[in-house]
Amino acid sequence: MDLGSVMIVGTMIPVTQILATIVFIVAALTDFLDGQIARRQHLVTNFGKFADPLADKMLVMCAFIVLVGLGSVASWIAAIIVCRELAVTGLRLIIVENDGEVVAAAWPGKIKTFFQMIAIIILLLNNALFNNLNLPVGQICLYICLFFTIYSGIEYFYKNRKVFSDSF
To answer: Is the Cα dihedral 146, 149, 151, 157 positive or negative?
Structure first.
C-alpha cells in the first residue's frame, strides 16, 4: 500500500478505530507468536492449551461487541459467535474436570479463528483497504467466519458427546 492509500484510509476512518485496529492486530499477533514459540520450545502445557484459546475468545468477543456498536456487524451474528465461544469454553471445562484432558482446537476451529481475526481487522477499518474493488471483503470474511463458527461448534460438541452420555 502506498502513502496516498494510507492517507485516504486515515481520512475515512476515525483515529480511535485505527488505534483499536492496531491494538487488535498487536494482540492477535502476540497471541499467535506465543503459541508458535511454546510449540517450538516444547513448552506446551495444559494451562497453555486452555488459556490460549480462552484469550483468543475474549479478544474476539470484545471486538465483535465493539463492531455491533459501530454498526458493522449485525447483533444476531455477534450473538451466535459469542454463544458458540462460551459453549465451547464450557464444554472444555467439563472435559478437563471429567477427564483431566485439554482438547486442542481442530482445523475448523483454527480456520474460524483466522477468518474472525481477518474479518475484525477489515471491518474495524470499514473495508477501506478494499473500497477500490467495490467488494464487501469484510462482510464476506464475516460470513465465512460465521459458517466455520457454527460448523466447528457442532463438530466440537459431536466429537465430545461422550461427556453428556452419563447425564441422560
So the answer is: negative
Q: Are 43 and 33 in contact (CB under 8 A)?
A: no
Name the pTM for this structure: 0.80
Q: Is the dihedral of CA 70, 75, 78, 83 positive or negative?
A: positive
| Exposed/middle/buried for residue 146 (C-beta within 10 Å: 0-12, 13-18, 19+) | buried
How far apart are the C-alpha atoms of 114 and 18, rounded to whole Å?
20
Closest Cα to residue 131, out of 22, 7, 29, 5? 5
How many other C-beta atoms can be found within 10 angstroms of the C-beta atom of residue 126?
A: 18
Q: What are the start-end ranges of the E strands in the chain?
A: none
Q: Which burial class, exposed, middle or buried, applies to 70 when counting CB atoms under 10 A from its CB (0-12, 13-18, 19+)?
A: middle
In the chain the domains, ranked by start, together with CATH numbers, are 3-163 (1.20.120)
Distance, in Å, from the CA atom of 45 to the CA atom of 83, rounded to the nearest integer, reads 26
Query: What DSSP designation does 105 have?
Result: P
* Residues 37-76: tens digit of each pLDDT: 877 888 777 777 767 777 888 888 999 999 999 999 999 9
Burial class of residue 156 in the structure, from the number of CB atoms within 10 Å of its CB (0-12 exposed, 13-18 middle, 19+ buried): buried
How far is it, in rounded angstroms, from Cα 168 to Cα 164?
A: 7
